[in-house]
Design brief:
alpha/beta, 8-stranded parallel β-sheet, 12 helices, TIM Barrel, binds N-carbamoyl-L-aspartate, binds zinc ion, 3-stranded antiparallel β-sheet
């Protein structure tokens, strides 16, 4: 008998849709299968005004076409005044904090946390969650997340009512911090559940698997996978699908970011089934996020069945081309339809 499953309103709680030709190319992959997603603000220039936020939201909806997809907008956290934060509160799901220089388009990010304390205090009072790229900009690439943990801990203690989202968590030390603090939650990507540094560069260097935070050891990967499979209520799915053109990736100075949107739900179903945890997928890709953020996404039923799906080898339109995660690979589940 054919095995099928229905996921109610899947959500991608960390998503880069970019702008222009790239937005038009990548948005449909997310919008066809997800009911909504948290849209990262690090386009160029980053989203820092209400005007930019509203017009970006419009461009996203346009790029989603007929698909039912709710973009949950974020803004790039800067030294905003209280009145601005109060106005923004009604229009954003979170403020995104990028330490300066840690990743794509983060140059305008925070140089130190002290300077943002008035904003964090106001956000705590206004109930605006803090979404955070938890890495330092220091020398050891593999320890950048770990080295950021004391800062995260400081924020969690100083602002106990601030909801903190530890984005794309990638290390077992990071997971321990999430367990230790009531106000710290985390998003988990497909790639941090499945890849290690050996996949990235154990044999040949594969720039399409290069991202920040960088994929780590087997022990880290397994720890991340385990909390995801168990749908631990402190974690939720956020793909961090972050497309860069094929050209920018297959170059001497490859950009960081993995484009995973075309592989997400089929691959997640495959992994959860393989580990006998299919019954937890609904929580991981939707229910946990609803509870953590207190949101009620549009109703969308996504039907999957256990039959072969092949991730596209490349995704392109006339103006842009990007190579997805697991390009050309087979997957044992596919999305059959959406209601
Ligand atoms: C992201 C991007 O390209 O925008 N890159 C990445 O490696 N994940 C930014 C980010 O989330 O760090
Ligand atoms: Zn990201």
């Amino acid at each position: 008998m054919m095995q099928t499953m229905t996921i109610k309103s899947p959500l991608d709680m960390h998503l880069h849709l970019r702008d222009g030709d790239m937005l038009r190319l990548v948005a449909p992959y997310s919008a066809e299968e997800f009911a909504g997603g948290v849209i990262m603000p690090n386009i160029a220039p980053p989203i820092t005004t209400m005007e930019a936020l509203h017009s970006y939201r419009k461009r996203i909806l346009q790029a989603c076409g007929e698909n039912l997809f709710l973009p949950y907008m974020t803004m790039f956290l800067k030294n905003y005044d209280d009145a601005f934060l109060e106005e923004a509160a009604a229009h954003v799901i979170a403020m995104k904090l990028y330490p300066a220089g840690v990743t794509t388009n983060s140059e305008e990010g925070a140089k130190n946390i002290d300077s943002l304390e008035p904003q964090l205090k106001a956000m705590e009072a206004l109930n605006i969650p803090l979404s955070i790229h938890a890495e330092t900009h220091s020398h050891n690439l593999f320890l950048r997340e770990q080295n950021f943990l004391p800062i995260l801990e400081y924020i969690a203690k100083k602002f106990p009512n601030l909801k903190i989202i530890f984005e794309h968590i990638s290390s077992k030390e990071g997971l321990k911090l999430v367990a230790d603090y009531e106000n710290i939650y985390a998003t988990i990507t497909l790639h941090h559940m499945t890849l290690t540094v050996d996949d990235l560069m154990g044999e040949k260097m594969n720039p399409h698997l290069f991202c920040k935070p960088v994929v780590k050891t087997e022990a880290d990967r397994d720890a991340v996978l385990e909390v995801a499979l168990n749908a631990n209520p402190k974690v939720m799915f956020g793909s961090d699908s972050a497309p860069h053109s094929k050209e920018a990736k297959e170059s001497a100075l490859a950009s960081a970011g993995i484009f995973s949107a075309p592989a997400l739900l089929p691959k997640l179903a495959e992994i959860f089934e393989k580990h006998g945890k299919l019954e937890n997928l609904q929580k991981f890709v939707s229910d946990n996020a609803r509870a953590i953020y207190g949101i009620c996404p549009p109703e969308k039923l996504v039907l999957l069945d256990k039959s072969e799906y092949r991730v596209p080898a490349t995704c392109k339109n006339q103006k842009a081309e990007v190579v997805p995660l697991f390009a050309g690979e087979r997957c044992s589940w596919r999305v059959l339809g959406v209601e």
